Amino acid sequence: MTQSLPNQLLVEHASGASRFVRACLRQPVDRTPVWFLRQAGRYMPEYMAVRKHHTLLEICRTPAVASEVTITAAERLGVDAAIIFADLLLPFTPMGLDFEFVAGEGPVVHTPIRTLEQVEALQTDRIDELSYVARSIELVAKHFAPPRADGDQLGIIGFCGAPFTLASYMIEGGSSRNYIEAKKMMYASGVAGTPDSKAWPLLMEKLVKVLIGFARQQVEAGADVIQIFDSWAGALSVEDYREFCLAPTTELVQSVQQMGVPVIYFGVDTASLLPAMRETGADVIGLDWRTPLAEGWKAVGPGCAVQGNLDPIALFAPEEVLKRRVAEVLQQAAGRPGHIFNLGHGIVPGTPVDNVIRVVEWVKELSQV
Ligand code: CP3
Fold first, then answer.
1. 8-366: what fold?
2. Cα 40 to ligand 1 centroid, rounded to whole Å
């Protein structure tokens, strides 16, 4: 099994850093750090107020607004890390692929990528056009530079998609149930020597190149950690994940680690994939809520940190039940170094903000050593 890189840079980075970064590196912390997937989103009135005046893409592409949304969510909730407000699909534009967000439908790519010629036409030399994300990170980093009241530094999370999840949006043209077109391109690469076999590996290669460049901009701008979202990896069998996705994902993970920051690798519905995901060498594996945290941690092995894994819908439960579920996640982690409290997937619209804030307070109270 691949171990995390013995990265001197990482160790230096972590000394005197935030409890969030220390937990990513499995170093001891005074209490469990906590933040939430999609913590700035439609459940939050402050976000909806900004959203009234801007489209999602306008927010992402305007550093003053994206940074404000990021900062407001982190401060309102009292969490230990701020994830930069951006979207997985932003790199499509400088690759020459147009998309939009359609209300009620999610992302739509108007001309999905289905042929080798289309993959060949994707551009990889325009990454500079994504620098607005780095500018947003600089503003967030500046805002959170002074240590907080408890002496801790807030962690700043940059992110990008994983090759499979981004390829599936490119090929399907949007969200998908069965990933038929994406898997067709993937499986075609299993027959050596045919023209069709070249499309998937070339797409992986181009995505990895762009994502490494995008992650580098974010790290140089002040991101302490990079989270790689493989949200739809759960659609793959372990065999397919290993044969078609593990190598490009590993290249992305390890290239980001060489920039001197820890990597969180997250997917949903991944119970059977966890040991293979761990082989990427990621410092932290994000766990969804379907498997008890202790079991998920066992599957990834002790040499790796974990993030998770409260069911986001538990945030709708009565206080007593919600508190019990929070305590259970912490009990499963059993105070071992290397646990970051989070949900098993993103906060959904309609979630009561007060319940999210209560969860932060309970994690702080219940995990204090
Ligand atoms: O605090 C945060 O986490 C917000 C930053 C963020 C957004 N997207 C903003 C956003 C992050 C980390 C993402 C990542 C992202 N984008 C993922 C991976 C995360 C996951 O949930 O697994 C994915 C799959 C996408 C692609 C995407 N963007 C989809 C499928 C949708 C539609 C979702 C829906 O329910 O309609 C989006 C839109 C989007 N991105 C929203 C936000 C806040 C909501 C739409 C809006 O404000 O109009």
1. TIM Barrel (3.20.20)
2. 10
